[in-house]
Amino acid sequence: MQITATEAKNRFGYYLSQAEREPVHVMKNDRVAVVLVSAARFAELEALEKQKSMAQRKREFNEEYKDWIAAQNELVETHGVFGENFRPW
């Protein structure tokens, strides 16, 4: 749902109840200024924000296993990839 800031001001209670069902986008100067969402949806969004991003998890993995990764890379550089000359046909 999309409304103007004036509508939000004049019918705030109504749009609060609407926000329980769906996000309410409040427009000001032809752009979305705020979005009203339910408290439950806001809690979901906060929980998602607290989860680690894939980039963070990748950095942690690389840091924890850097010695093993280096050893595997050295094996590939020295001996190549096992089976790379095999053809399935």
From TrEMBL:
Q: Which Pfam families match?
A: PhdYeFM_antitox
Tell me where on the tree of life, at the top rank, the source sits: Bacteria
Alphabetical list of Gene3D superfamilies matching this protein: YefM-like domain
Matching NCBIfam families? phd_fam (TIGR01552)
Annotated family: Belongs to the phD/YefM antitoxin family.
Q: What does this protein do?
A: Antitoxin component of a type II toxin-antitoxin (TA) system.
Q: What is this protein called?
A: Antitoxin
